[in-house]
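New here. Your pick:
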Amino acid sequence: MEITILSQGKDEMEILVKGETHTLMNIIKATLLEDPRIETAFYDVKRLSNSVEREPVLYIKTMPGEKPIEILKDVADKIMVMCDDFSAAFTEAVQKQ
């Protein structure tokens, strides 16, 4: 995975998440949209001018005064906790069999 910030303003940013698919992008988008500091978040799979491949581009717009980078860091941490919780629950379920 390679992440490039394509544009950034006070309350919005656009990032390229090279090498990822809908699987990760849907989790990121859904978790962002759960955050009350987010006005909108979506991604599109685009063919950038310098590439023949299609890559996902994530767009985030925050509520006024909120910092997109900080919210995205918080969301990444939240997703990691969710993955850890799932892993622990799955391990427990497997051990019960």
The chain has a mean pLDDT of 93. The first strand starts at residue 2 and ends at 8. Residues 2-96 form a domain with the Gyrase A; domain 2 fold (CATH 3.30.1360.10).
